Amino acid sequence: MRSCLRLWSLVLCCVLLWSAVPVAAEEPAHIGARRELFVDDWMIHSLDNARQELHHPQPQEIAITYDGPAEGNTSYYVRILKDGDKYRMYYRGSHYDWEQRKSGHPEFVCYAESDDAIHWTKPDLGLFEFNGSKQNNIVWSGIGAHNFSPFVDTNPACKPDEKFKALGRGKGGLYAFASADGIHWQLMHDKPVITKGAFDSQNLAFWDEHRGRYVDFHRAFTNKVRAIMTCTSEDFLKWTPPTLIDIKDSPPQHLYTNATIAYPRAPHLFLAFPKRFVPSRKAAWHPDPKNNHPGVSDGVLMTSRDGNTWKRWDEAFLRPGQNQERWWQRNNHIAWGITTTPSPLPGEVPELSLYAIENYYVGPCRLRRFTLRQDGFVSINAPYTGGEMTTRLITFDKSQGDTPVELELNLATSAAGSVQYELLDESGTPIPGFTLKESEEFYGDELAHTATWKGNSNLSQLAGKPVRVRFVLKDADLYSLRFRNE
Fold first, then answer.
1. Residue 177 and residue 468: Cα distance in Å, rounded?
2. Which segments within 164-319 are labelled E, that is strand?
3. Is residue 3 situated within a structural domain?
4. 222 CB-near residues (< 8 Å, 6+ apart)
5. Pairing of strands 261-262, 270-272
6. What's the count of helices (H) and strands (E) in the chain, helices before strands?
7. Domain limits at 452?
8. Parallel, antiparallel, or unpaired: how do β-strands 164-170 and 173-179 relate?
9. Going by C-beta distance under 8 Å and a sequence separation of 6 or more, which residues neighbour residue 460?
10. Are residues 472 and 362 in the same domain?
11. Does residue 199 fall inside a structural domain?
């Protein structure tokens, strides 16, 4: 009996000692005035009858058909970028001759441009000869033409004659290119600047403004599966040793390309749109049944906050759809680069445009435009029965002048749906003046709605203080938030 009492006394002492140890308080994450999306779970503290829902781009018109003299049915690796008021498109011009079972002509880098990212033209540049004529849209020929991938260099230290830079595959690795105008290009070095990897893909790099460095993403193979490597550079010529990105718990799958960007509306977030290749599946349709190459493809969405650790949404972001030509081989390659375009609906609300290859190998190869709501990759969604999401503990910035700090929301409901919100302190207690009872009941569809509580939207008194935001949703979607202070 005494032994039992001693044992229970010991247990009680241990419990009391453990309970006396202070539990580390959650450190608030400072988000300043930046926009946060829900493409990962970084902002989410809890979900109750709500979920993260992946959305899908909607097909629109054919943006361009690759039927020019130096183009063809295997024109590929498309890059679209914005340069001032002009949009530029670069792509591989190539063709496969089915009868001869070989390439129909050498590979070139071809060029198109647009004023609105919807209607595209191919200028006659007169730079390189093809079939005895320079009347074509070729901007580069030779080394790197297979997968030439340019970008506008926004590095403040960039030289004017190197405003445009690019990577392209050559013997031994990736070579660096530069241009003052995006049309006339030259090699920056006679040797490859990145040599570790497998470069038969759209390998890319750009200036990462948020982190102040160049970042590269290129193909690698791991256990015979196509994967992605990354490295960084201060000057675009000397790169850190490439390492494989970590896609957490997603199963190994062939990621044929990566199409990585720093999302313009939230540049601290990397978004990638790899073409997922499934080589083990027989193509559902083939233009030449006698030579039925296996494999089907779709597009997926990935996101990262550091470029090394990624979340991959394993559900397809871009499905092949009902167009039979998209159901085989290397179709559904999402072009590198997204643009903002006006919606055709009344009011011309801005939306995102993405572009994807179809009719590959069949010919002529073409690029279709797809549209998506701004920030509309993933939402916090709740059904009609209602649901809740509470954010992690955060702090936000005050304004520099007299401008109030306001909570800006990108959200949408049904006619019978709604969204309400309240602010909580560190202990989870609703903050007076910003409680759910005082919140407006929002219903509608807005890209930049200002939250109010009894008509008040000014959150300046809470700037710098740790808070959570609790959302109560009914048949509604929340796409992004930010604490606007300008």
1. 47
2. 164-170, 173-179, 185-187, 204-208, 213-222, 225-233, 243-244, 254-255, 261-262, 270-272, 275-278, 296-304, 310-318
3. no
4. 244, 252
5. antiparallel
6. 1, 34
7. 25-54+379-484
8. antiparallel
9. 398, 399, 404, 405
10. no
11. yes
255: closest CA among 292, 209, 222?
222
Q: Look up tokens 């030579």; give the residue.
A: 291
Does 149 map to a domain?
yes
Tell me, what DSSP letter sits at residue 405?
P
Asked if residue 413 lies in contact with residue 419, where contact means CB atoms within 8 angstroms, the answer is: yes
Q: Are residues 29 and 176 in the same domain?
A: no
- The reported pTM is 0.93
For residue 66 the two structure tokens come to 């690759």
**Residue 177, burial from CB neighbour count under 10 angstroms (0-12, 13-18, 19+):** buried
Q: Is the same domain home to 282 and 222?
A: yes
Q: Provide the residue-wise pLDDT of the chain in tens; the chain has 486 residues.
A: 444 444 444 444 444 444 444 445 789 999 999 999 999 999 999 999 999 999 999 999 999 999 999 999 999 999 999 999 999 999 999 999 888 888 999 999 999 999 999 999 999 999 999 999 999 999 999 999 999 999 999 999 999 999 999 999 999 999 999 999 999 999 999 999 999 999 999 999 999 999 999 999 999 999 999 999 999 999 999 999 999 999 998 999 999 999 999 999 999 999 999 999 999 998 877 777 676 778 999 999 999 999 999 999 999 999 999 998 899 889 999 999 999 999 998 989 999 999 999 999 888 899 999 999 999 999 999 999 999 999 999 999 999 888 999 999 999 999 999 999 999 999 999 999 999 999 999 999 999 999 999 999 999 999 999 999 999 999 999 999 999 999
- 324 and 234, same structural domain? yes
β-strand pairing of 108-114 with 86-93: antiparallel
Q: How far apart are CA 265 and CA 253, in angstroms?
A: 29
User: Vertex 235, ends 233 and 240: CA angle to 5°?
Assistant: 25
Q: Please give the backbone phi and psi of residue 483, each rounded to the nearest 5 degrees, phi first.
A: -100, 95
